[in-house]
Here is the input.
Amino acid sequence: MLNFKGKMAVVTGGTRGIGKAVCKALAGAGCNVIATGTEVVNKSSGGIKYRKLDLLNDGSTASFLSELAELRRIDILVNNAGINILEAIDGIEDSNWEKVLKVNLTGPMRISRAVASGMKKNKNGRILNISSIWGIKSKEKRDAYSASKTGLIGLTRAMAIDLAPYNILVNALCPGFTSTELTKSMLKKSEIISLSRQVPLGRFATPPEIANAALFLCSGMNTYITGQSIIVDGGFVIR
Here is the structure.
């Protein structure tokens, strides 16, 4: 079992789905975790401290960044918070485009920038950006989302080069179809069955399966993987 005892992690979008599973996995391995959500109240539970963060609200973001600056150290950052607005290129609203990029790309940049200086002083750190298979390939009405997730992969590569001299490893994780509460609420059972048939492993991932990959990339076991986009999709993109 991976040991994160004494480590401090920040996970954005950590109150549901993949983010929640990552927080639970880190805390279960002994890590101190700060998890953010747009609708949470400040509280602590099971080794996880919850803090409110709305990346669409500059005041909320500034307040959270100020709180991070007061921490003695941050060993791990998982940029997981994200949104998706389904619009094709001929109908996409400027405001929606800007919202998706602000949360999915600008947000990770701002938070990574805030924690990087401390990690550089400690000459150690792990940053994991949660991208998507839609950053590798795309689908109809994913214009803003695909642009943001592809951009996040590019940011990951550039950050990895910037921070490698300080033993800070930066990677992107690209989950495929994952069985979260949000997915179940958005897709009919027949749609889930149809999509599962397109996956060589024949099913959606579970959030803990995605979290297991995240756990390794953020751990001391990972000493030489950086600047990579790790696809966890049951083989979907290779079919």
